[in-house]
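User: Reviewer 2 asked us to show a designed sequence for the structure in our supplementary figure. I'm pasting the structure tokens here. Could you produce the per-position amino acids so we can include them in the response letter?
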């Protein structure tokens, strides 16, 4: 079997653990693995190399992806569809394995519709993919947020300041809720629940009145005030899949809070620090388990499938279930039970 593998979309700690596991398991089955550089771009303008055991040696602990990645959407131009299918033939690839989020898996799903043998491996720090309990990279991002909030405690306490921490997660508040819970944030704002700026200010005043003269807000980049339908952005730029680039909620909130409460307020945008660097032990293991399962699926001749974590088990589900529900693109939103839990600790 000749497998072509690519990593697409935003990078994510644990991608290299997946690649290593796929290649090492594939080796055992006698499969040939071709690494496709920079996501779908490397299939549109063929850029590939042989991924053997040597190529994946010493990468388990590394962040990023040795293959490189991009947000290239091969279906953005109709003529590219034909090119993509031709190149798969030309490169003699019998299976296309995609490690990615909703956009990459969505493309894979379309390729399945064209009769290509596909396997999907779910990846995103946002943990918003349907069909799987957790994606690798998520807990590493949560660790980064937790460490940042830990560090912000001393400076915001010393200055008696309000600190707004802007956290990634476009559609879902998983990273914000988990990072906020683990870091002991005094308020958590997520896209799943609109907030009222007045209530945010009241909560801050209550805590200060109790003598706790600092306040940390974990705010998801996709969180919205109740008067606004639109996401808060500083730019109108979109990527090839139509995703708008978020950012600005931290700054906006900090300004309003200082104006309405009179308390000195600062904001911090954690940004890509949440995605960079070495994966946590949990994500190395989850990525390894996903990679092994993906190679096993090829061995079993099961295609059009996505590997997934259900409870503690690694299973496989139809690829379409990872990205769609009822024929529409869907995201796995935050389980609001975590917010209820967090509210116990709010002022
Ligand atoms: O989807 C993962 C993610 O990290 C989001 O949390 C964030 O909004 C987005 O990617 C950032 O994208 P980019 O890397 O293109 O700036």
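Assistant: Here is a per-position design you can include in the supplement:
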């Amino acid at each position: 079997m000749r497998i072509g593998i690519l990593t697409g979309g935003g990078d994510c700690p644990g991608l290299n653990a997946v690649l290593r596991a796929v290649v090492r398991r594939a080796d055992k089955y006698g499969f040939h693995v071709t690494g496709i550089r920079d996501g779908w771009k490397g299939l549109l303008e063929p850029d590939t190399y042989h991924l053997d055991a040597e190529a994946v040696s010493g990468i388990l602990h590394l962040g990023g992806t040795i293959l490189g990645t991009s947000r290239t959407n091969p279906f953005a131009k109709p003529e590219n569809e034909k090119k993509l299918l031709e190149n798969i033939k030309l490169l003699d690839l019998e299976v296309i394995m995609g490690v990615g989020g909703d956009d990459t898996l969505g493309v894979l799903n379309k390729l399945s519709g064209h009769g290509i043998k596909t396997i999907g491996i779910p990846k995103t720090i946002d943990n918003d993919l349907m069909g799987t309990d957790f994606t690798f990279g998520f807990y590493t991002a949560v660790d980064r947020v937790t460490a940042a909030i830990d560090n912000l405690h001393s400076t915001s306490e010393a200055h008696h300041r309000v600190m707004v921490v802007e956290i990634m997660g476009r559609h879902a508040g998983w990273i914000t809720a988990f990072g906020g819970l683990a870091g002991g944030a005094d308020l958590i704002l997520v896209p799943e629940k609109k907030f009222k700026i007045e209530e945010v200010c009241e909560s801050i005043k209550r805590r200060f009145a109790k003598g706790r003269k600092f306040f940390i807000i974990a705010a998801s980049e996709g969180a919205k005030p109740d008067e606004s339908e639109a996401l808060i952005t500083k730019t109108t730029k979109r990527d090839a899949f139509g995703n708008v680039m978020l950012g600005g909620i931290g700054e906006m909130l900090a300004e309003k809070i200082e104006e309405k409460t009179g308390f000195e307020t600062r904001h911090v945008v954690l940004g890509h620090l949440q995605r960079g660097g070495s994966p946590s032990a949990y994500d190395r293991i989850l990525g390894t388990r996903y990679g092994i399962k993906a190679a096993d699926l090829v061995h079993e001749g099961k295609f059009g499938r996505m590997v997934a974590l259900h409870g503690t088990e690694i299973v496989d589900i139809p690829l379409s279930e990872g990205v769609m529900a009822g024929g529409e693109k869907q995201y796995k939103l935050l389980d609001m039970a975590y917010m209820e839990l967090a509210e116990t600790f709010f002022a």
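For the response letter, you might also mention the following. The mean pLDDT is 95. The chain has two domains: 2-136+278-329, 139-274.
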